[in-house]
Amino acid sequence: MHIPFCRCTLQGTGNCYFVKCIAVLLSGYCIKTNNLGTVENMGPTELAVLLSGFYQWFVNDNGTIPSYSTLNSLRLGIHTYLKSATVNSSIDIVNDQEFDGANQVLTERSSLAQLMQGHQAIVGPTHEAITKEDMSILKENMNCSTPSKLQQVFWFTLMYHFGHKGREILRALKKDSFLIQKDDAGREYISPNQIFPEGESPSRRRLWQNVHIYSDITVPVGNPVDIFHLYLSKLSTNSDILFQRPIKTSTNDNTGPWFYDKILSKHVLSQMMASISQEYGLSRVYSNHSVSNSNPFC
């Protein structure tokens, strides 16, 4: 959304006029999203959800994604307002754990802006199929060594073979939405369960019933059955959610779950392929649609 009056105010988070503008801007966002609560009276959980959407919504005056410095100034302005004598809130939106998801949205959005600036000649994110060269980069470098990387590989495998795109549909998936079975020859394969995510069209449901992904299909990033086995084994046993929030660790710990029993942010899911594009230095910023568009049979 275009915010015409805010561009000239992002110059100093200690500026009183700046803080007042941020308060007005955030209140306006509450009204726009039909949020009946006020920022001043929100608890940490409700405010974190609001800020996740707010960081995603905010754009520069020219419609481009803001840089990290701009988004960070925005966040610090909100923080200053909450700590002001007017509100006097004990909430810390920068450091409190409840705001990890919102801060992750901010970081990934600013990273996407930086990546897009580095690819001025290629407008992104694009829905085009992933090129052979970029697919080779993913195959050589994607791995399951950490919770976040494992989730990337699993998500990519699911998107490539089953063609999911909508973040709400992905968030509706459960552990039992897919089955790992064996055919008469003893070969393992993945097939959709009869429990379909809410929102899927009848045509997609009929297509699902005929999809069997075998373990010998290693395109594009590895054995899909092994990937499903590993991912499911690392999920928290306290939740049946399929896309759980990864634990922030860089160690390959095989002794316990790698995920919290909390659902992954819809913003993280919606930007998954854009984040992968940046992390692995692909030639352009791909959208989630690009993954399924790369599969000629999907």
Number of strands: 5
Please give the alpha-carbon distance between the first and last residues.
33 Å
Strand content: 5-15%
Biggest beta sheet summary: 3 strands, antiparallel
Shape descriptor reads elongated
Describe this entry's structure for a reader.
The protein has 298 residues and is mainly α. Helix content is 45%, strand content 7%. The protein has helices at 16-32, 44-57, 68-83, 100-117, 132-141, 147-162, 167-172, 202-208, 224-234, 266-270, 272-279, 288-293, and strands at 178-182, 188-192, 213-214, 244-246, 259-263. The strands form 2 sheets. It has a 3-stranded antiparallel sheet, with helices on one face. A two-stranded antiparallel ribbon has the order 4-5. β1 (178-182) and β2 (188-192) form a beta hairpin. α1 (16-32) crosses α3 (68-83), α2 (44-57) packs parallel to α4 (100-117) and α3 runs antiparallel to α4 (100-117).
Topology:
Elements (H helix, E strand, L loop, with lengths): L15 H17 L11 H14 L10 H16 L16 H18 L14 H10 L5 H16 L4 H6 L5 E5 L5 E5 L9 H7 L4 E2 L9 H11 L9 E3 L12 E5 L2 H5 L1 H8 L8 H6 L5
Antiparallel strand pairs: 1-2, 2-3, 4-5
Helix pairs in contact: 1-3, 2-4, 3-4, 6-9
